[in-house]
Design a protein that fits this description.
The chain is mainly alpha-helical. The chain contains four helices and two strands. It has a two-stranded antiparallel sheet. It is flat and about 55 Å long.
Amino acid sequence: MADEAILSLEPIKRDFIRINGEGFEIYAPDELSVEACQEITRDGALIGELSAKHDKASHKKMAKLIDEVAHRAFVEIPDEVFDKIPGFQRMQIVSVFTGLLLRQATGLAGATARAVSGLAGVKPSSGSSGSLAGLPTGGGAARPSGT
């Protein structure tokens, strides 16, 4: 294996969400623990499940979860600012934040798979360089009738 670093320590870059023209930082996925990422992702999935239900109890629980996840996305936001964000916009914050987490997790999974296959000596396929002769095609050995 080449002397390629798997881990690169760079300054964390945070995204901002603008509210009334003022930027408020949201956490970068790199700053969160694995447990926190899993909790937020589970909460996001639960929000999706609750949104499919059409009863008051589910919608009340969903609104509470949206508030919690949206608030947890911010590094720091005054309550008086957060309280003015309408429910639908809070849901948009949740969507953006969980999307960042999922994108990060997907990238890490891909990097891990590449590292593991490199350690195991598995080389990525370069297309159809091998011969397909002799491989079963799924058809039977019998000739079609009329030939």
